[in-house]
Amino acid sequence: MIRLLIVDDHPLFREALESAVRLVHPDAEILEATSLEGALETLDAADHVDLALFDLSLPGTSGLSGLVRLRKSFPKLPVVVVSGIEEPRIVREILALGVAGYVPKSTSKRELARAIAEVLQGSVYCPEAYRDLAQASPAERDSEQILARLREFTAQQLRVLEMIRAGLQNKQIAYELGLAETTVKAHVSEILRKLNVFSRTKAVIEVAKVDFNALRGEDEPAGARKGGRDARD
């Protein structure tokens, strides 16, 4: 039996996604999550999931950070991003993260069903309007390189990076994540190494080349919750 995970914090849109899934696989088992943490916990508990339909603008995440964490935590899971963001440059960044597809929320239910069917057959789905994106500008290529580096981060390093971007110091990060300050320092050092920079400020500047702000969902602090998922990190 096909099993899918729908990750979206809006009940009406979860219902719309489920309806589209049923057009393709009427008997599919559908799991739901309303946050990134909920999605990660659901995936941890499930024997297998064939596909995740993922909204970028989730509580406790900003920009592409949630998608990067999901891809890092479950690299073999096909993920289709279903988003209200339709700016071509952002779509390019999403696809650069190795997702199985991108579908705008303005897509019809029947087209969404077709996208789901294609991805479940092993294809990568992208709407026709985005298939012939213009040649990337130097700034866009730079952004894609940053995204490629972010894919090398562990889930914990991504969380620490989010907190650095939010202006938190090591002691505050340690408190938010329930870690020793020495552990946070080690994560910061590894973050700087992977970004090929020598200071926290330079790290923030590099990551700013990726348009996180244009994708920001909730304006809450990066410290989503204390403790948690260190085993995978």
Cα distance spanning the termini: 31 Å
CATH superfamily of the largest domain: Response regulator
Number of helices: 11
Number of domain modules: 2
Q: How are helices and strands ordered from N to C?
A: EHEHEHEHEHHHHHHH
The residue fraction in helices comes out at 40-55%
The overall pLDDT, averaged over residues, is 81
- Under CATH, the topology of the largest domain can be stated as Rossmann fold
- Rounded Rg: 18 Å
Which spans have pLDDT < 50 for at least 5 consecutive residues? 213-233
Task: Please count the beta strands (DSSP E, at least 2 residues each).
Answer: 5
Strand content: 5-15%
Structural class designation: alpha/beta
CATH level-two architecture of the largest domain: 3-Layer(aba) Sandwich
Q: Provide the spatial order of strands within the biggest beta sheet.
A: 2-1-3-4-5
Inertia-based shape = globular
CATH domain class of the largest domain = Alpha Beta
Largest sheet: 5 strands, parallel
Describe the structure.
By secondary structure, the protein is an alpha/beta fold. It folds into two domains: 3-131, Response regulator (Rossmann fold), CATH 3.40.50; 138-215, Winged helix-like DNA-binding domain superfamily/Winged helix DNA-binding domain (Arc Repressor Mutant, subunit A, Orthogonal Bundle), CATH 1.10.10. The chain contains eleven helices and five strands. Strands 2-1-3-4-5 form a five-stranded parallel beta sheet, sandwiched between helices. α1 (11-24) crosses α5 and α3 packs antiparallel against α8 (155-165). The longest helix has 15 residues, at 181-195. It is globular.
